[in-house]
Specification:
The protein is α/β, with parallel strands linked by helices and 433 residues long. It contains 13 helices and 15 strands. The two termini are 21 Å apart. The structure holds pyridoxal-5'-phosphate.
Length: 433
């Protein structure tokens, strides 16, 4: 029995089945590659689900963490605060779009950031309703499950969910849902379900992650900004997956030139260490009473040290520009695969957040989740880690570290192309033993 098979059996016996995993038991990782318990090498196109924008174990991140560990590992910011937390807040306040005073609160997970953004918006507006979007994903806690617009695997069996959450259609040009239709859907909500004057917040991922890498049309984001201004609603951009240089800008909403009131970040910020945050207008962020926000681990000093190094590396290595180049390479390879293989119905993305959608028939656009699963399995056999997404589980997403060397990116794309052929039963010219 291989070590991986043995670990798989132990995991099945010791860990709840609800915690789904791949079968790759990692023992070592470096930049865009990792090695499993049986010594197999993998190219990582998952990056810990968009966390490792700066790659596995970036030397500067590791050095910052080691240095911080020499001083103190935890005090709880509420008990004994530290300068590095304040300085990271100052950095995010100046990086976030908007020419106004901002403040930042740190937490540990993406879901916690979204939960807190909603708490803050409710406190400030003294309203309770929240609008989110179909296909959106905001986490696995109760409120964020309610906000999430994707039933499987996130919502089934876990209700009832908190009340006063409404969903509107996210625009999806490939599926014929236009910006106008999505705006009409919001109008329907405002007339049929919830008074806009009772809405505390609209929360949107400018590029949906789990929902299938759907890029919100920029005019849609601008229209949301206008609606929020008209009705006194707080606009929250959930940048947990799309933020921190992933799309070629520090925050994905910057592509649209839209300034949200609050931004949630996590994943890429900590470079592999758990850290999330809410950044936004000082007047809104300051609404809640002392003690109403925070948590034992929020803004853990080790994670904060890692985040300072991550921001330094993004700057010194030009990772925003690099994200755009990595994304172009991915898109052009996928576009040429799409010309050869009609099962690829759509190729989309922003910066290095790139995906392709698999369909049984390009005319009917019937989703093909089986082919998607098969591509992932073949890629894994050939040494490439890929993730799926989409409400119909028929989208393959590419989330390589932004620091991936060109040769490794090329190798990964070659494996992807072979895995697609394997899954379609086509003899592959690049077949490996
Ligand atoms: C857009 C978005 N928001 C929130 C979350 C939840 O983050 P976490 O898993 O850290 O709680 C995720 C996680 O994938 C996400 O993609």
């Amino acid at each position: 029995m291989s070590k991986s098979a043995e670990l798989k059996a132990r995991k099945a016996a010791a860990v709840p089945g609800g915690v789904a995993t791949k079968g790759i038991y990692v023992v070592k990782a470096e930049n865009s590659e990792l090695w499993d318990a049986d010594g197999r090498r993998y190219i990582d196109f998952a990056a810990g689900i968009a966390v490792l924008n700066t790659g596995h174990r970036h030397p500067e991140v590791m050095a910052a963490v080691a240095k911080q560990a020499e001083c103190f590992a935890h005090t709880c910011f509420h008990v004994a605060p530290y300068e590095s937390y304040v300085r990271l807040a100052e950095r995010l306040n100046s990086l976030a779009p908007g020419d106004f005073a901002k403040k930042t609160l740190f937490l540990s997970s993406g879901a916690e950031a979204v939960e807190n953004a909603i708490k803050i918006a409710r406190y400030y507006t003294k309203r309770s309703a929240v609008i989110a979007f179909s296909g959106g994903f905001h986490g696995r806690t109760l409120m964020t499950m309610a906000l999430t617009g994707k039933v499987m695997p996130y919502k089934r069996g876990f209700g009832p969910f908190p009340a006063e959450v409404y969903h509107a259609q996210f625009p999806q040009p490939y599926r014929g849902i236009t910006t106008e239709q999505s705006l009409a859907d919001l109008d329907r909500l405002f007339h049929g379900d919830v008074d806009p004057k009772a809405v505390a917040a609209i929360v949107i991922e400018p590029v949906q992650g789990e929902g299938g890498f759907n890029v919100a049309p920029f005019e849609f984001l601008r229209a949301l900004r206008r609606l929020c201004d008209e009705h006194g609603i707080v606009l929250i951009a959930d940048e947990v997956q799309g933020g921190i240089a992933r799309t070629g800008k520090m925050f994905s909403i910057e592509h649209a030139g839209v300034v949200p009131d609050l931004i949630t970040v996590a994943k890429g910020l900590g470079g592999g260490f758990p850290l999330s945050g809410v950044t936004g207008r000082a007047a809104i962020m300051d609404a809640a009473h002392p003690g109403g926000l925070g948590g034992t681990y929020g803004g853990n000093p080790i994670s904060i040290a890692a985040a300072h190094a991550v921001l330094d590396v993004i700057d010194s290595e030009g990772l925003c520009a690099r994200a755009a180049r990595v994304g172009q390479k991915m898109q052009s390879r996928l576009q040429s695969l799409a010309k050869e293989h009609p099962c690829i119905g759509d190729v989309r993305g922003l910066g290095a957040m790139v995906a392709f959608e698999l369909v049984k028939n390009p005319a009917t656009k019937e989703p093909d989740p089986e082919l998607t699963t098969s591509i992932l399995a073949h890629a894994e056999k050939r040494g490439l880690i890929l993730l799926s997404c989409g409400t119909e589980a028929n989208v393959v997403r590419l989330l390589a570290p932004l620091t991936i060397p060109d040769a490794v990116l090329e190798e990964g794309l070659n494996i992807l192309s072979s895995a697609l052929k394997d899954a379609l039963g086509i003899e592959s010219a690049r077949a490996v033993a």
